[in-house]
Amino acid sequence: MTSPLEQKKIRITKPSMVTANRTWDGAVIYRTAAKGWSTNLSDAAIVRTADEARELLAESIADDVGAIGAYIAPVEVKDTGKIEPGNLREQIRSEGLTIDLTVPA
Amino acid sequence: MYAYDELDRTLINERVSEFRDQVKRRLSGELTEDEFKMLRLQNGVYLQLHAYMFRVAIPYGTLSSKQLRQLAHVARRYDRGYGHFTTRQNIQYNWIKLAELPDALSDLAEVGIHAMQTSGNNTRNVTSDQWAGVAPGEIEDPRIWSELLRQYTTLHPEFSFLPRKFKFAITASEHDRAAIKIHDIGLRLIKNADGETGFEVLVGGGLGRTPFIGKTIKPFVHGRDLLSYVEAILRVYNQYGRRDNIYKARIKILVHELGIEKFAREVEEEWQQLRDSALTLDHADIEEIRSRFSYPAYEKLPHMPDELKQAAHDPLFERWRKNSVFPHKVQGYSIVTLSLKPVGGPPGDATADQMDAIADLADRYSFGEIRVGHEQNLALPHVAKRDLPVLWKALDKIGVATPNVNLVTDIIACPGLDYCSLANARSIPIAQELTRRFANHDTANLIGRLHINISGCINACGHHHVGHIGILGVEKNGEEFYQITIGGRADENAEMGTLIGPAVPYAEVADVIEDIVEAYLALRDRAEELFVDTVKRLGVEPFRERVYATR
Amino acid sequence: MPLVKQGRIITDAFAHVPDGAELPGDGAILISAARFLEDPEAFSRRTGKTGVIWPNNRDLDDLVPYLDRLAVVALVFPSFRDGRAYSQARLLRERHGYDGELRATGQVLRDQFVFMQRAGFDAFEVKKESDAEAFAATVKRYSVFYQPTGDGRVTALNRRMQSRHSESAAR
Q: Is B286 on the interface with C (CB under 8 A)?
């Protein structure tokens, strides 16, 4: 997964959202259409063009007090309307570790 | 153990209160993230995928039981009940909240633990041999010098904004357990012809994108001149290290671009101006630091106590003893390695309960002392041999007696894409799968010493270049792939591994490693020939042929 | 940008004169290294004091011959991450014996004040007003120092040795 930390050119091939971490506790958050943040991917505002993405990213970055490291990331929008992470990195951020921490006895 | 005095305590408390103020200014919006980032990094706070990550220093890998209990407390109170021991004698917490960090730091400061300079472009935690002070044949305890360097590098007014991070490692044993050749400065403690203590100084080692083995810059620097010589190196680096490209900013690139001779001349010129300065250490200075280290009052004990003779009838005990118990410089005592590599577990993790239990066992059986090694295992450094059988039972009960130390399942791995925002691929599940494949102890024993190191990206936190088998996660078209190298090593004969073939997808890594190991078993000329020696003797080609013939 | 000296915000007596701009007939001026080096003698003939802004990537050897006629040397922090000027400051103070004003300029923030003081800076062009106001409180944050530098503060090791001596004397 190419680190999105240094996103310069914005190119979009898939539906996308903007995600970041919440400043006070670091929790994974998603930019909503209501110009706020949510910890649920299902609340994320979905953008489909580079212009929309740029605008959503700009307003997200402007909230420097509330969120850190905002970037654009791909999502899959299912036929049912359900939003799913568009790559493994986002899957891990959204759903948690892929590993079991408990050691089998 | 080094015991903090009032001055050390004051300093770390002052640092905590400064950081508390910085966090407050960040949360109020007075500091932007851009301004705060460097400040938090100077205190070991990263932003990872799920949360902030907090890296705490365990200088030269020495911990008291009280300190380990406090590490457990932080895991429980501020995190999710576990921590991760790294390859550089640090512990990392993965789920820390920024708003609570000042409290966590303040709790740690109570027991003389800090997170100063565990990240950022400054001098990092000074690491050393985890067996320092107890290894047979050691010239002298390198931790005295490590502590002098810790103090010298902490909040250095000139070198807190270097071109890039800067790591020291020190060893005083012939066998290098501190990986000094892959550090920015590696120090090998030696004696000169007059019996005086000094150091062979190596510079410019490091892994990452452009790996280099450190080169000797000066074969002998007298102990009294250690700090002035180090200052000369840092000053040359601070002024001339590249700042235009983050990937070329480490001292290894400067040393490489100038050549070691020219770099050494620059340092020598600077040092001639500095050598008789306030940095010169006299005997009393060194003794002052030495006096703050306490050593156990060892008993006079037999080499082979009855308890050990009796336990020798238990094959499970013997299996563990032969694997995890190492000779101590004092008769009747042993060094015991605690494996943090259980089959199916994430390498280097320990739960708060395990940490507490280990602290209790250290009090009972190891004079209250614990060590942390770069292989991501712990050690109890002063165990009376008569206590080994009962200690073994207790360690086994808490899951840290897997008899796989130095074997194929004793894997070094970075957190990888499960946690890390820099990673391209996962490391931990690869390690877990490998431990399951090689779970059979007899097989692992038959294979013998074999270090597998896994990194989830080119930054090489899992030291893949110097693994006997190195596994590097890369990304290809959104999929996880892994490049595999063989023949690397991190010890006194340090070498970078060689690529064995094309990168393989996630699902095939464990198969390929099994094939490599099988090839080794077929190719070695006798059972005692270690994997890494077979690769040295035959080169990569015969391995490549066998492993990739059918792929 | 507020200037802090001796712990207080003061008015800058030095006029920053950009390259190409005409020099005032008298009064203290702060000019670029390039302009100064074009004709160092010319500035000695002026009545006002001269200060030079020295870039952090230029060898100090070019400056050293003129130190005794300069009232200010301003060293530059192009970003707070770039620490080259700390080395320059120590060299000027500790090796070349410069005792005029040593000014930190550029990205100068609160969290660098103590380091800068220890490296020999005694004047600070601070980026933010709030940081300048917090100067006096900020520099008192630390009372223990591990490294010897030219600022003469007693190091932790020296304090330990002293207390050891007084202990043994009392015995």
A: no
CATH homologous superfamily of C3-143: Aldolase class I (3.20.20.70)
User: How far is residue B283's CA from residue B291's CA, in Å, rounded to a whole number?
Assistant: 12
In a domain, A30, yes or no: yes
**Cβ burial C13-44 (10 Å sphere, 16+ → b, else e):** bbebbeeeeebeeeebbbbbbebbeeebeebe
Confidence of residue C44 (pLDDT cuts 50, 70, 90): confident
Residue ranges of domains in chain B, CATH in brackets: 6-109 (3.90.480.20), 142-291 (3.30.413.10), 318-397 (3.30.70.3340), 412-548 (3.30.413.10)
User: Is pLDDT of B71 > 50?
Assistant: yes
Measure the CA–CA gap between C101 and C54, rounded to whole angstroms. 13
Which is nearest to B153 in space by CA: B167, B142, B164?
B167
Q: Which of C72, C167, C88 is CA-nearest to residue C120?
A: C88
Domain count, chain A: 1
Q: Do chains C and B touch (3 or more CB pairs under 8 A)?
A: yes
Nearest chain C CA: its distance from B240 CA (Å): 8
Q: Given C82, C90, C160, which is nearest B5 (Cβ)?
A: C160
Q: Which residues of B touch A99 (CB under 8 A)?
A: 346, 418, 426, 428-429, 432
Nearest CA-CA partner of C158 in B155, B226, B281: B281
Q: What is the pLDDT of residue A103?
A: 62
Residues 6+ apart with CB under 8 A from B193: none
Query: Which tokens hold the place of B384?
Result: 């009376």
Q: What is the mean pLDDT of residues B460-487?
A: 97
**pLDDT, average across residues B317-341:** 98
Residues of C in contact with B8 (CB under 8 A): 144, 156
Instruction: Tell me if A29 is assigned to some domain.
Output: yes
Name the DSSP letter for residue C21: S
* Digit-coded pLDDT (tens) for A7-54: 667 788 889 999 999 999 999 999 999 999 999 999 999 999 999 999
Residue B246 at interface with chain A, using a CB cutoff of 8 Å: no
- How is residue B183 written in tokens? 């550090």
Structure confidence by residue, pLDDT tens digits, B284-300: 999 999 999 999 999 99
What tens digit of pLDDT does each residue of B238-252 get? Answer: 999 999 999 999 999
Task: Identify the domain containing residue A18 by its residue range.
Answer: 7-76
pLDDT of residue B208: 94
Which phi and psi (to 5°) does residue B495 adopt?
-150, 155
The whole-model pTM stands at: 0.96
Extents of the domains making up chain C: 3-143
**Three-state secondary structure call for residue B32:** coil
